[in-house]
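Hi R.,

As promised on Friday, here is the backbone we talked about, encoded as structure tokens. Could you run it through your design pipeline when you get a chance and send me back a sequence?
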């Protein structure tokens, strides 16, 4: 079973992990202020946010972790009626709050499609390497 790199806990990727890099819970005055300079509905701004805040969050993960995380995103994108806007909803009981809430994102699916596109480009070698392995052996 694949475990988190720094913990002896099973790695069970969730779609919400993709927005962890823009989670501003208790970081409103630092990360929140930095991200407020970007418009998540502007393609160029969104690509900067994805490249500098979302994908870099996973730099310490192995190619196997990235592959499984990528597959979770890919699976959600394959469901035409999947509600991606729910990923932007704050839940203060769970300590989750991202830089922009669901009312500020015009196209939540498009946001995740851009994450998918940029991750597939940046992680191309890692994803290919992992695809050649039997994931059940992890």
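Update: got your reply. Pasting your designed sequence below so it's all in one thread:
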């Amino acid at each position: 079973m694949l475990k988190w790199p720094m913990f002896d806990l099973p790695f069970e990727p969730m779609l919400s992990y993709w927005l962890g890099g823009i989670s501003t819970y208790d970081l409103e005055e630092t990360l929140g202020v930095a991200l407020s300079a970007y418009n998540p509905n502007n393609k160029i701004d969104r690509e900067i946010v994805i490249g500098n805040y979302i994908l870099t969050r996973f730099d310490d993960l192995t190619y196997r972790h990235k592959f499984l995380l990528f597959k979770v995103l890919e699976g959600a994108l394959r469901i035409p009626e999947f509600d991606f806007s729910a990923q932007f909803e704050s839940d203060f009981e769970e300590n989750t709050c991202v830089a922009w809430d669901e009312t500020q994102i015009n196209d939540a699916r498009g946001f995740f499609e851009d994450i998918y596109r940029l991750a597939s480009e940046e992680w191309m070698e890692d994803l290919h390497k992992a695809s050649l392995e039997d994931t059940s052996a992890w």
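One thing I noticed while checking it: The chain has a mean pLDDT of 95.

Thanks again,
M.
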